[in-house]
Amino acid sequence: MRVGATIFNQNYTDWDRYEAEERGKPFPGRATRSDREIFNEEIGIARIADESGFDSVWTIEHHFTPYTMVTNPLQYLTYVAGITRRVDLGTMVTVLPWHNPVRVAEDVNMLDAFIGRHRNVICGVGRGLGRREYAGLGIDQNEARGRFDESLQVLARLLATGQCDFDGEFYKIHGLRLRPQLERDLSANLWCAGGTAQTVEIIAKHGVRPLTIPTTSLELALANMRRYAELRRSAGHPPSHTKLALWTYVAETTSEAEAGARRYMVEYADSALRHYELLGTHLKDIKGYEAYGAQSDALREDSSPFRLGFFRSHPWGTPEQTIARATELAHAFGTDEIMFIFKYGSMPMAEAEKSMRLFAKEVIPALKELRPEPLAV
Fold this sequence. Notes:
By secondary structure, this protein is an alpha/beta fold. The protein contains 14 helices and twelve strands. It has a single domain, classed as Luciferase-like domain (TIM Barrel, Alpha-Beta Barrel), CATH 3.20.20. Helices cover 48% and strands 16% of the residues. The strands form three sheets. Strands 1-2-3-4-7-8-9-12 form an eight-stranded parallel barrel, surrounded by seven helices. Strands 5-6 form a two-stranded antiparallel sheet. Helix 2 packs parallel to helix 13, helix 4 (101-115) runs parallel beside helix 6 (144-161) and helix 6 (144-161) runs parallel beside helix 7.
């Protein structure tokens, strides 16, 4: 099994200032901690991963809030490619409704041309959830599912052949040829996050392999992946592995790991609630997001299961405890790669690096020996 590291770039301590500004209340003009300071600091995660045995480095896409501050993951990974030598590079995810799929294919193709055949660009894509992001980018969130479905088809064709003809509601493409020309079929490097039943149906139908980023709970994520396996088989596709994102905190003692995991994983959960506005009422009225609306109703009643969910279910502890939980989840999800998040919430970089280096020394060798079977029906 492969093991990756993920860069988030959260400015968690700026949430109160950000929300005061959003509400029109008095606020300081700048974050206490500079966003750019966090950027410059967290690029160290890529350097550590490259030198300490990780297989890949991943990053994500979000806009406008302190939640994460990577607005163009493929641009970010192009920089990472220049400061690393051996790791593959992945997006978890590029949000397709926010982009022209032709440009996404061009960016993947160009980065693939830079890094050569001994490294891969893994293009993870998704549909997006944040209302602020859709509004700020001027895209009707009610169109998200249709845009996502068409974009996925266009992107898959371009990554496979470098050519595309497509006649849809949102994209009409005729006689398109990518330049520089593809050197190889990149369609196997296309993966997709399946956070809702609707997205799972789309990616299973098209045979795109699943990327699991459990921003709600591992239980819901696993239920979605089991449904994906059923739909994939019904569509005539063979079983597939998944790729799985997990939060972690590793320390020499259980008590030290528990203190760090509890504090920072709860902070991360809080940041997700705030960024996605999961305590609001708007999601149930957006086409294709009704399931999230039902979850929001439950969260308004009691958000504590969500706030504690990462701490209660993700792998943390001593190296032995971390290996045990990660192994359990790898087999449950049928994964061929886990992307671990080491720095989140207000965690200082020194603390994240200490956890990451212990993980690299004690946990990675055991995880690389795993051979989970593909996700079964």
